[in-house]
Amino acid sequence: MARKPRVHYEDAIYHVMARGNNRDRVFESEEDKAKYLKILADYKERYDFKLYAYVVMDNHVHLLLQVGKDPLAKIMQGIQQRYTQYYNWHHKHSGHVFEQRYKAFICEEESYIMALICYIHQNPVKANILEGINYSWSSHQAYVSRLQGLVNVEFILNILSIKPNEAMTKYLALVGTAVDRPKYKDEKEQEKETQKAWLQAETEKGQTELMWEQLVAKITVEEEVNQEKLIGKCRIRQVVAARKRLIYEAINRSIMTKMQLAKLLQIDPANITRIWQAKVGSKEIK
């Protein structure tokens, strides 16, 4: 019997694990690992997902990514098929390279996501690889150098702190703390929870859109600004001030998350955090 397709849950963050068939090596050389990351980058650009952490070991891969409109199944099918074609051609191999069903688990809590980043980056340490945490084929070095590109490091670091040095200190402290492998439910139970989360998300999406529209209309009237300019790129001082109020109230009323606002208003997540914290600070002073 064919497996049921996974439910697509837009904006969901997944911990994905893909292992070699029969747990065999699927990355024989550094060239193979570099090729997998190149394919990952190509599909990231094609499907506009966000990648928060990765590690490419000899016989498996861990990814922490957030999907957009395109489902995880479509993304992973493309990545795995492309690498399989490459591997079979270069290593005179035929048949499956990866296990047929990769594992994917939804991650919702911020603290859990942070723990997963640590767990992923600590994989080489636990495998007793000489490089340890500085393993060349994980995203740890991207965090240390704050390198923009394949990995969306700034969003995670800005959650830790908007002050660069403080964010890095907290990150290094996190990855220096031993983290056990996450305990997941079995796949059937996970699928049920994903379905439940999807249904809840669809319900909340309708409610969120209504509350957002009401908030935008309210601020448009009270601040006497044009609605299109309010949610656009207008730099008029009055509009900018109104937009900051909109961001603060949307977060304060739990209408939208910082991530959702950043995507909707096309503003860097770090700036969303700065606006929020500045408003919170001004409220506390008063």
Automatic annotation (TrEMBL):
Source organism of the structure: Pelosinus fermentans JBW45
GO molecular function annotation: DNA binding; transposase activity
Transposase IS200-like domain mapped to chain residues: 9-123
Pfam family, one: Y1_Tnp
GO aspect biological process, one term: DNA transposition
Domain of life assignment: Bacteria
The protein, known as: Transposase IS200-family protein
Gene3D superfamilies xref list: Transposase IS200-like (3.30.70.1290)
